[in-house]
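hey
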């Protein structure tokens, strides 16, 4: 069934990932104490199984990796962290981890919002019905900076994600309410459709390792990444 209507008590600020990254980066660099290695990719840990002494990085232009020495290395490379491989290269065993995967997938497309909707347009969400015993399908329209709407259509395992324009439009129409489809019909698509299947819950247990090298920390999604439905980031 449907929930009764009640006065809004939650307030969300929505923006694209590049804007969020930019604002955070700007604020951090304003302090003047941090130096960024632009375009550098971490490829390997330096040190041995008892102590990490730095990280080898490769520059965007290619070439041989160079060593950045460090007293403390923090792996914050996110869900796709290669830390397990890096620890194995130091001779350490695999880190235990739990993975719980609901098979969630996202198909996302950016739209130009119609005139007159900029400003306080609300976030729109149509949730799946957990009682149907069918794969879950849900959809959202999230206003973004620059007069744009981010439309994301989501499925759990067994409901194939839309890949092209016709499928995207059709998928929005079979949600439990037509509002996502109605809003899409008055907006102009301005991006391709992007798919993401990186929604599994994964937690690593470094504390269960028989030995952990000094000078190494793990943070954020590298350590524990959850189903995006939980908005855990
Ligand atoms: C589809 C989706 C939707 C989500 N929606 C929400 C939401 O609505 N609300 C919410 O709170 N959370 C959400 N999350 C979760 C949130 O995005 C993450 O929890 C959060 O971004 C984790 O931050 P992080 O800094 O640990 O990793 P990340 O944000 O993944 O940052 C890791 C960074 O490391 C860089 N990197 C990776 N490898 C290397 C390397 N070898 N060398 C150098 N740099 C490297 C990457 O380019 C990236 O910039 C969502 C996640 C997904 C997948």
């Amino acid at each position: 069934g449907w929930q009764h209507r009640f006065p809004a008590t939650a307030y969300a600020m929505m923006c694209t990932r590049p804007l969020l990254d930019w604002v955070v980066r700007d604020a951090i660099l304003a302090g003047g104490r941090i130096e960024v290695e632009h375009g550098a990719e971490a490829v390997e840990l330096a040190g041995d199984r008892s102590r990490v002494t730095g990280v080898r990085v490769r520059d965007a232009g290619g070439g041989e990796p160079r060593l950045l020495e460090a007293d403390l290395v923090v792996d914050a490379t996110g869900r796709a962290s290669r830390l397990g491989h890096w620890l194995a290269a130091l001779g350490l065993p695999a880190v235990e981890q739990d993975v719980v995967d609901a098979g969630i997938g996202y198909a996302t497309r950016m739209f130009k919002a119609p005139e007159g909707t900029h400003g306080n347009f609300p976030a729109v969400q149509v949730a799946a019905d957990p009682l149907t015993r069918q794969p879950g399908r849900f959809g959202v329209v999230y206003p973004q900076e620059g007069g744009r709407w981010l439309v994301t259509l989501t499925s759990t395992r067994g409901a194939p994600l839309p890949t092209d324009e016709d499928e995207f439009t059709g998928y929005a129409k079979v949600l439990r309410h037509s509002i996502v489809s109605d809003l899409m019909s008055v907006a102009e698509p301005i991006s391709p459709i992007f798919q993401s299947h990186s929604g599994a819950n994964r937690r690593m247990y470094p504390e269960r390792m028989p030995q952990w090298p000094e000078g190494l920390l793990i943070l954020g999604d590298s350590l524990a990444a959850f189903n995006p439905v939980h908005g855990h980031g």
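The first helix runs from residue 17 to 30. The two ends are 30 Å apart (CA to CA).
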